[in-house]
Design goal:
The protein is of the alpha/beta class. The protein has two domains: about 375 residues, Divalent-metal-dependent TIM barrel enzymes (TIM Barrel, Alpha-Beta Barrel), CATH 3.20.20; about 60 residues, no CATH class. Helix content is about 45%, strand content about 10%. It contains 16 helices and 14 strands. The strands form four sheets. It has an eight-stranded parallel barrel, surrounded by four helices. Strands 1-2 form a two-stranded parallel ribbon. The protein starts with 10 loop residues before the first strand and ends with a helix. Bound molecules: D-xylulose and cobalt (II) ion (CO).
Length: about 450
């Protein structure tokens, strides 16, 4: 049975098209820098926003109907969401999905019953997957919504809750492996604190690391070959979250010897909440060999919280794709961790939102490839450090210098000349020329 009857298969119609249900820029088979767009951009659907969230906010009920013809809270509804999700992905040509355990089935009072439901729904999803080329990008356990996690999961003060979190991770890993997921995410929404007055930070961080080590050991023991991811976020819902940003999370992973099994899942809106640009977080991850996957969305600079909007900002997508291309691509994908605005409450809006996001990233890819082919930005950056390519600069880079030798060199020099201009405005103008100039 077709659920989205009014929506046809979404096709590429080109930049001139006025059809809201067509791609203007995302042309799956178009080759950019030697690879198809669809390979550069492995898009994923976020189960939670797309199939579960109805637009509830702090002040009002949902506005969208996500019942898909079944009674919410039942296994029939869980299956209807699978049907809707697969039809949705197939119509858009989205090849991956991401899920939390509790996105898939209604959580029961008893974890044994929840797990039984997860077995049933994952059988149903597997069956669907067999007839399509749709795959699982990553799975995760929701260890933040249930009140039992109010003091954290890995960072909780309750050993019983800690064990419950372990049980949820174990099952979420089972399901991720069963569905062939490429990754497993830890987003620490409740792993943090409200006040230091009641918090033993060192103990809590040690405990989070213990849980992650157990997850890695178990995952590997059941044949999980993919990457574990930390998804950094500085705040919301907790006032201070331990995985503040990529640098903090990478430092944590190294401290606890987890860096070989983990990479970063960078979310654009989390980057801006941390006071960074999206591309900053991508660069920091990439230079540490930890750029894994992306949660593709955007925030609102006028609001101080995680608005999870669909990507619309072409500059940001361009800078993102520049980082991704420079890093040689992602091992993960681009998960639209994004939701329609509350008044965009129709099923067509769900499609149009994904079309917007996919077209924005297609434009980002096209633009980033042009910037790289043009070469001026990369050349400028490289030449900017040319004083380290010979003489004393090369000695420094080659590790041949001592502080005394450099001080002697500086003594002879007197005062160094000021370095050359950083030319930011010229480089920004070059980017604009590449984006909007003659073809
Ligand atoms: C919350 C968030 C999560 C993670 C997965 O801000 O981004 O949905 O992506 O738990
Ligand atoms: Co996310």
């Amino acid at each position: 049975m077709e659920i989205f009857e009014n929506v046809p298969k979404i096709r590429y119609e080109g930049a001139e098209s006025k059809n809201p249900l067509a791609f203007k820029f995302y042309d799956a088979d178009r080759v950019v820098l030697g690879k198809k767009m669809s390979e550069h951009l492995p898009f994923a659907m976020a189960w939670w926003h797309n199939l579960c969230a109805e637009g509830t906010d702090m002040f009002g009920r949902g506005t969208a109907n996500k019942s898909f013809g079944a009674k919410p809270g039942t296994m029939e509804h869980a299956k209807a969401k699978v049907d809707a999700g697969f039809e949705f992905m197939q119509k858009l040509g989205v090849k991956y999905f991401c899920f939390h355990d509790v996105d898939l089935v209604p959580e029961a009072d008893d974890i044994k019953e929840t797990n039984k439901r997860l077995d049933e729904i994952s059988d149903y999803i597997l069956e669907k997957m067999k007839n399509t080329d749709i795959k699982c990008l990553w799975g995760t356990a929701n260890m933040f919504s249930n009140p039992r996690f109010m003091n954290g999961a890995g960072s909780t003060n309750s050993a019983d809750v800690y064990c419950f979190a372990a049980a949820q991770i174990k099952k979420a890993l089972d399901i991720t492996v069963k569905l062939g997921g490429k990754g497993y995410v830890f987003w620490g929404g409740r792993e943090g604190y409200e006040t230091l007055l009641n918090t033993d930070v060192a103990f809590e961080q040690d405990n989070i690391a213990r849980l992650m080590h157990m997850a890695v050991d178990y995952g590997r023991s059941i044949g999980f070959k993919g990457d574990f991811y930390i998804e950094p976020k500085p705040k919301e819902p907790m006032k201070h979250q331990y995985d503040f940003d990529a640098s903090t999370a990478i430092g944590f992973l190294r401290k606890y010897g987890l860096e070989k099994d983990f990479k970063m899942n960078i979310e654009a809106n989390h980057a801006t909440l941390a006071g960074h640009t999206f591309e900053h977080e991508l660069r920091i991850s990439a230079i540490n060999g930890m750029l894994g996957s992306i949660d593709a969305n955007q925030g609102d600079y006028l609001l101080g919280w995680d608005t999870d909007e669909f990507p619309f900002d072409v500059y940001s997508a361009t800078m993102c794709m520049y980082e991704v291309l420079k890093a040689g691509g992602l091992t993960g994908g681009f998960n639209f961790d994004a939701k329609c605005r509350r008044p965009s409450n129709t099923h067509e809006d769900m499609f149009e939102a994904y079309i917007l996001g996919m077209d924005t990233f297609a434009l980002g890819l096209i633009n980033a490839a042009k910037i790289i082919e043009d070469g001026r930005i990369d050349d400028f950056k490289k030449n900017r450090y040319s004083s380290f390519e010979s003489g004393i600069g090369k000695d420094i880079v080659d590790g041949k210098a001592t502080l005394e030798a450099l001080a002697a060199y500086a003594d002879k020099l007197g005062a160094p000349k000021n370095p050359e201009s950083g030319k930011q405005e010229r480089l920004e103008a070059v980017v604009n020329q590449i984006l909007f100039g003659a073809k």
